[in-house]
Each structure stands twice: as structure tokens, then as C-alpha cells.
Amino acid sequence: MKPPLLRFRHASVGYGSSPVLTGVTLDVVEGNFVGVLGHNGSGKTTLLKTILGLIPNLKGEFAARGKAGGAPRFGYVPQKERLDPLYPLTGRDVAAMGTYRRLELFRRLRGLAREDHIAECLADCGAAALADKRFSDLSGGQKQRVLIARALAAEPEVLALDEPLSGIDVTTQRALIKLLKHLKEERGLTVLMVSHRVHVEKDLFTHVVWCDEGKAHSGETGEMLKGRLGEMFRGEM
Amino acid sequence: MSLLAEVLAPSFLLHHAVYGSLAVGFVCPLVGVYIILRRMVFWGVALPQVSAAGIAAALMLQGLGYAWLSGGEAGERHLAIVGAVLFTGAAILALAWLERRGGSVGDGRLGALYAAAGAATILCVAWNAAGETEMMGLLKGEIVSISESDFHAMINAFAAIAAGLFLFQKELLLVSFDRDMAVTLGRSVVVWDALLYLMVGLTVSLGVMTVGPLVIFGLLVLPPMAALPWARSMGALSVLASLAGGLSALGGFLLSYSYDLPLGPVIVGAATAAWAASAALRALVDLRNGGRAAP
Asked: What is the per-residue pLDDT for B72?
């Protein structure tokens, strides 16, 4: 059995000294597609921020170990509404940010261009035609494709998406789900997806973390749909 | 054209004033781009005033007999620079700490800082035993009286700031546009923010000494605002804003020299005219295309 990329044991996550979620016990293994589900304000994004290292784990055990030994390489897709439309950026400019992991100065001095890599990521996400368009002028679905391309440009082990389907029409949601499935299979990615829209993605996930009333319940999707928790979970779907 | 050739000639009596104004005009908007995009305009109001308070406090202490630097007028100018840099640096550190602690500095805190710095400036001027007139000249920006060595030091500092902004444009953009993404890519947001704040602080401190707080605020804000409706990339925004600032400074100097007007307000007037013209032209173009309104 592969060692987990992410491991929580009886952990509490939150801000400052106030836990938002307690009892988080979870293993995320390479190739998993994990849905972090729950109502608005249930702590889904807080859990994701802890995983990404944006806020510290408050209590219990949390370990993140990638192939290179340190934290895994994350490709992060934030909530698109969080990004300020004032910035004069094209789709290509936004996607290129995924390559800013190393010190850009040295890359520029060596003259190593990453243009092909960025173009490939945009094309894989069906966003090649959006490369020269102003990012703030794009529709919600188009922005999401560019942001997924940006995450891919970071050459991630784990793709982490925060509410990628919110504010998008159903047809575009389906297209994005298809894209995510394709990318996972094609690139062998591990995917973490935060969503409050449970019914749309129920067949998508291998594992589910259900955040409810300050507690996180996790397991394989099939198991979650059986036992006592399944009743509540099915009710939501 | 003959007037332009006259003021740009190295033999021109006020050539320090011309080139100093041009340096401030070209470099301030490069920093101002980040102030506008990060929605920190109130920082742009407060920091020049804090810098002015630093100058006034340093000179007041010297006037009261606490003279740390000798050398007459040059020593006084160096002392003023030390005061401006110390006060601006301390204010930036405090604001950055508050921002990190609470997620936002808050307009109220910046307003309070502005009011306190304004009051401190006036009080320091009133208490200065060395005389108000000389100090008021420094506070308004005395580029005309700057020494050759100080002038070159100032130009070198602005060149270093411009080079830093160019070299680290992508890193500064990443931490400004999406801080969380920067962290997931292993970037230290604290380090890059500190570098940006350092460049803001140096630009404001040196700029206030050169052209005064009013002009610095005008050049931080107006040229990037004029450039924003037309820019399609960060590079284009920086170049257009810098050009707008440099041309406003040059145009302002020519008008000031020709009609014997005070330099600072004329530069701000020229930058305001550039912003108004840009916004009107953008609105006209949008009206024609039935497109979006200018920011």
C-alpha cells in the first residue's frame, strides 16, 4: 500500500485558537479524488487551507509528504471571486503564475522560456483561445479553466480546488467535471475538491470528507453512502 | 522646442531640478502601480505625510541642539533624509504588522496616521529654533538646492528601485494578485512584501525631499490611474504609468519655468490633466464600442 500524501489523525483546524473542525482523521493516497463537502461555513475551506499550509494545524497530527520527501507540490485553484479584476492580466499571464515556483530572475538570466509549457497547460484545459483575452473579462467557466491551467503549470502532485463549480451554469459544471476526470486520469493526479454542491459530484469522488456541525467525517464514497452517516449524506444529495 | 532644449541642457542652471523631477516622475508611478492594484491608496496619502514629519522632527532636534551630523547645509539634508527614512520605515513596519495580524490595515488607522503625522509636522516646524522658512523649503521639496553628490545618490537610489521593480516584477505580481497561490508555490509572502514596502518607503522618503509630499502622492496615484484603462499587461501598465509620470513632471517643469509658477502644484496639475484626458478618451472609445467603462 502506498504511503499517504496527506495524513490527519484526530486533528483540529481553525483560525487563531478557535477550531472550526475537530476530529479530522483522513488519509489521502496518490490517485485519490477526494471531495471535501458540506454546507457554507462548515469548515471545508479551512481544512483545505490547512492542507495547503496557509494556516497551521491547531491540534492533533497532520503530515504532508510528497515524492521528494517534503510537502507535496500543490496546484491550487482558488475561488475565482477572490481574485481582483483590477489587474490587467491576460489568460496567459494568469496561467504563467503557476511557473513562478523558482526564482524567476535566474530563469530569465538563463533565458529559459516556459511559454510552451504554459500553452500546453492552457490547451489541456480547453483554454488555448483564452490566452490573449483579459482575465477579468472572462466568464466564470472560462476563468475556472484558466485557473486550472495555472495549477497544472505548477506541475502538481496534488490538485486542490476550492468551490470550482460555484457561480457556473450546469452545462459548464458538467464540462468542468469531465475536464477534471480527464486530467486526473491523463496526468495521474491526486485531486482535492471543496464543494457545497454535493449532488453534482457524487460519482466523481473516490473518497469524501463530510464537514458538518464542527466535525469532519471521512471515508470511501461507497462506505459513506451505506451506514448511519449515509442517511444524512443521502439527505443532502 | 528651444525651451525644451534649454531646460534639458546640462549647462542649464536648474538642471538638478529638471532631472530630479524627471526621476521622481518616472519612478514614482512604477511603485504607484502596486499601490493602486493592491488598493493601498490611503498608504500613498499617509506615508508622504509621515516622511515629512520625519524631516521636520530630525531638523527640530538639530535646531534644539541635538546635532548628530555636521557639515552645514549638506549635513542638514542628510539628517532630513535619515529622519524621513526612519519615520517612513517605522510606519511601514507598523502598518505591515497590523495588516498581517488583522488581514487589513483599515482606512481609519491610515486616516489617524495621516492626521497625527500632519499635526506632528506643524508642531515640529513651530518648535524648530533654526527657523521656519528654511525648514518649510525642505518640506516642500528643495530640489533646486541639492548638492551634486546628493543628486547623484538620489538618481542612483531611484535607478536601483526601478531595477528592483523590473527584475522582481513577477514575484511582486504573484504576492499582490494571489497571496495564497504564492504560499503554495513555496514563496515567502513576508519577504516579497517587505521588499515592496522597502521600495515604497525609499521612493516616498527620497521623493518627499525632492518635490514634497503633495507631488509624491500625486505621482504615486495619478499616472497609474491614467495608464490603467489602456494597459493589457503588467509590463504595459508600468511603462505607460512611468511615461505619464515622466511627461507630467517635464510638462509641469516647463510650465512652471515659463510662467514662474510653483513647481509642485503644476506637476500635480499636469498629472491630473493626463488622468482626466485618459479617462475621457477611454469613455469615448467605450461608448463607441458599447463596451465596459474605464476603471
From this structure: 62
